[in-house]
Amino acid sequence: MTTTRYQQERYASNRAWYRAYTEGLACISCGSSEIEWHHRELRKAGDLKVSALLAGASIQRVKEEIAKCDPLCRRCHSLLHKHLRKS
Question: pLDDT by residue (tens digit) across 21-75?
């Protein structure tokens, strides 16, 4: 699949915005600055991973999805899901 120049520019613009937006954010569990987004509620139809949205959605749509999430590092995110599976 090929991407258009518009898609490439939008992705680059979204990534630049995202880097600035997440600067200074940390995992709410351990304080690490390498974050992932954890959906507080089970994902519903229409909910997407933030990383997938960066490829083509509007910044407003990305913000809406982030509002449903908590920042966690990969380790804490994995531990949380492991705990949730056991519950």
Answer: 999 999 999 999 999 999 998 777 667 788 888 888 899 999 999 999 999 999 9
Cβ contact 10:50 at 8 Å: no
SS (H, E, C) the chain: CCCCHHHHHHHHHHHHHHHHHHCCCCCCCCCCCCEEEEECCCCCCCCCCHHHHHCCCCHHHHHHHHCCEEEEEHHHHHHHHHHHHHC
**What are the extents of the domains in the chain?**
5-86
On whether the pTM is more than 0.85, the answer is: no
Cβ-in-10-Å burial (0-12, 13-18, 19+) of 59 comes to middle
